[in-house]
Amino acid sequence: DPQNAEYPTEKNLDMLRLIVSQSSAENSIVLDCFCGSGTALLAAAQLGRKFIGIDNSAVAIRQSKEKLSGQDYNFYASSEEIKSKGSDEYIPAEKSDEYGHCFVQDK
Questions:
Q1: CA 36-55-31 angle, 5° bins
Q2: What is the DSSP letter of 100?
Q3: Which one, of 78, 70, 71, lies nearest residue 54 by Cα?
Q4: pLDDT (tens digit, 9 = 90+) per residue, 18-72?
Q5: Is the CB of residue 48 less than 8 Å from the CB of residue 21?
Q6: Distance of alpha carbon 20 from alpha carbon 66, whole angstroms
Q7: Do 30 and 51 touch, CB atoms closer than 8 A?
Q8: 56-62: which pairs have CB atoms within 8 A and are 24 or more residues apart?
Q9: What is the pLDDT of residues 82-92, one digit of tens each?
Q10: Phi and psi at residue 63, in whole multiples of 5°?
Q11: Alpha-carbon separation of residue 14 from 1, 30, 58, 76 (angstroms)
Q12: Nearest-angstrom CA–CA distance, 61 and 56
């Protein structure tokens, strides 16, 4: 829906709600490997699905975090800095802008 897009490839929330509701059951997990602005993740959360969103763009991660601000989720980062410590680890959302390769997952 480019007329209202905050992110260049953002999709319409109503369309994504329909897709998520017809292709998954409540409490199932919705995976969006290129989550962009997080609209599919928001649709999943609103429909009672768990979600995993992945993107390697810092802009996308910021947009997703803004869109999911009212949702209950954990934020994780996987970057070279973290990997140099030996493993991926939980990063508090307020520190996440320091990392470029991230994913979000609800609780």
A1: 85
A2: S
A3: 78
A4: 999 999 999 899 999 888 889 999 999 999 998 888 887 778 878 888 888 887 7
A5: no
A6: 21
A7: yes
A8: 56/100, 56/101, 56/102, 57/100, 58/97, 58/99, 58/100, 59/7, 60/7, 60/35, 60/36, 61/96, 61/97, 61/100, 61/102, 61/104, 62/97
A9: 444 544 455 55
A10: -60, -45
A11: 10, 16, 25, 27
A12: 8
**What does the chain come to in residues?**
107
CA 100 vs CA 50, 73, 90: distances in Å: 23, 18, 14
- Please state whether the predicted TM-score (pTM) of the whole model is above 0.85: no
Residue 69 in tokens? 């601000």
Question: For the purposes of burial, counting CB atoms within 10 Å of the CB of 43, is it exposed (0-12), middle (13-18) or buried (19 or more)?
Answer: buried
| Amino acid of residue 12 | N
